[in-house]
Design brief:
Mean pLDDT of chain A: 91
Structural class of chain A: alpha+beta
Distance between the termini of chain A: 21 Å
Low-confidence stretches of chain A: none
Order of helices and strands of chain A: HHHEEHHHEEEHEEEHEE
Radius of gyration of chain A: 19 Å
Oligomer: homodimer
Number of helices of chain A: 8
CATH architecture of the largest domain in chain A: Orthogonal Bundle
Strand order of the largest sheet of chain A: 4-9-5-6-7-8
Strand content of chain A: 15-25%
Amino acid sequence: MLTFTEENYLKALFQLSAEKGIDQVGTTELAQHLNLKPASINDMLKKLKEKNFVETERYSKITLTDEGKRRGAEIMRRNRIWETFLYDKLDFTWDEVQEVAEQLEHVSSKKLIDKLYDLLESPEFDPHGNPIPDLNGNLKVQFRKTLAEVETGQSCKMVAVKESSNSFLQCVMNLGLVLNNKITVVRRQEFDDLLDIEINGRIHTVSQKLAQNIYVLCLNCQKESTCIKHLCNLN
Amino acid sequence: MLTFTEENYLKALFQLSAEKGIDQVGTTELAQHLNLKPASINDMLKKLKEKNFVETERYSKITLTDEGKRRGAEIMRRNRIWETFLYDKLDFTWDEVQEVAEQLEHVSSKKLIDKLYDLLESPEFDPHGNPIPDLNGNLKVQFRKTLAEVETGQSCKMVAVKESSNSFLQCVMNLGLVLNNKITVVRRQEFDDLLDIEINGRIHTVSQKLAQNIYVLCLNCQKESTCIKHLCNLN
DNA sequence: AAATAATGTTAGATTAGCCTAACATAATTA
DNA sequence: TAATTATGTTAGGCTAATCTAACATTATTT
């Protein structure tokens, strides 16, 4: 059995690896993600290494073992299934799900997650558009870019958000933006990097910072839009 | 904020008080209920006392303060709402709910519990027939006795179970007994204290021990069947 | 290649929650 | 009421997970 804390470490390692597309995570990076000091990370790594969840050598990066990946994916799966439940079944808003799901993800019962997944009709993505890992730790990743990378004049569809802070999510909600909305980049201000975008026929001005945290699918490259990323080669 | 452990202590104290009908709980009693040693109880009591959740003097019994009761009732409420959710919505069986609900009860989100309660259509009792405390810590208590106390020849209705161990619950399930089933006590064996009972037209033989753990309502005293027990006088 | 900055590690302290073993008080029984 | 049993308390120790402060290594820049 894993402790609450060990689960958080494994989930964080899995998530950071997935985001970067590389299996190597740094101590400081992980510390920041978990809101801890690097020294604390080292203490825990010693334990995770003993239990064969990570591989790491002195002064080099951390890599999850296959078992570590499986466990990390499992926690992420639980988290995203709970987020979906809260959003779909209990009328939670976008910015409310994360805090509660982070507590719920640690409840360990295979039956619980399986039944919830059925109840939700086997969702592939959580309310923020992030993929729900399958039981083998495979993550369905969309071939996406950020709104900031979309060329002026082009249209795209919002498929996910990057940030999960409340201030960001509330900002997006205030724009009236929801998943699968069409967005057109109308104009860019060179001077201050602001973007004018069109949503549902209305023009809004948004910051570069916001645009960098919205994932979109360009409307002319939908064919190759999804591919399964095997973050974990098990079975 | 309460820790996981503090919540367990307060719930246990609330539950023991409620079961006994007295506001006084002993160290050893509590230790047994929580599967801990009496010495550990004392450590925690010091903390709970400082935080004003319990009152206790050297070598005497423990009493919850009003605030302590409110908190204890809150945890019990969460526990029983989760049990109902698992049973009603996720097809958990009688003996599976407890373990998972004991983890879920510590997730702290008022909205979560309120929404779940709505989803379940404001249940008054959990799947074991135990009352769900309201938001003020009031417990609706049925005027009930155990099956062992029912006179031979009389009929009654099962309204709750006392024990929560799996071996007991499975035993009851094997008899085909569910909440609100009618039970008639057909015969008693003087020699070994076994009871013959009729359920759905079939006769079963059960032990005294089992009968002592089944709560029933006698079919002729239904009028005065429920009364609200104010375990906590707040507001 | 030396200086600086960034990153990783270690030692030693702290807190929560539990334990055992010894001891103190209260309750029960002979 | 004295002896016995049940119950409650204290001291001292352990582990998990965190911290700070000092130190070591690696990477980057000049």
